[in-house]
Amino acid sequence: MAETSDIVHMSEHDGVQVVRLRSGAIREEREVEALGRELLALAEEPGRRIVLSFLGIQHLTSLALGKLIQVRKRLAESGGEMRLADIHPQIYEVFRITHLDKLFKIFEHEREALASFLSDAER
User: Which pLDDT belongs to residue 80?
Assistant: First the structure.
């Protein structure tokens, strides 16, 4: 079942929660806080697997990066995992410079991130 909010569109595929960011940028504090609330709520479910798609997002604040790190930590604590996809080259460069590309599994496209979870399940 798909759910939509002002910040994200969520759907589930083969037990993986796919979260697509809706706005062109996650710049304002209220947007970042709303995104954090939605992702942290998902992370509460033990073993939750999430693909977060940045398609159409061209700017991301340091506050948003902090929220992603917080969500990743919460997921790890509950046995879950998040994979990122569709990251604009400018945003990816920030992930690379800050070494967050080592912390997160990042895929070029959403379908590849989703497939990586499915191939993990087959092992």
Answer: 96
Question: How far apart are the C-alpha atoms of 108 and 121, rounded to whole Å?
Answer: 20
Distance of CA 99 to the CA centre of its chain: 17
- Of the candidates 21, 14, 109, 112, which has an alpha carbon nearest to the alpha carbon of residue 67? 21
List alpha helices for 1-123, DSSP H. Answer: 29-43, 62-77, 89-97, 100-103, 110-122
CATH of the domain at 12: 3.30.750.24
Q: What is the pLDDT of residue 50?
A: 97
Instruction: Give the domain range for residue 102.
Output: 3-122
- The count of structural domains within the chain is 1
Nearest alpha carbon to residue 9 among 61, 71, 54: 54
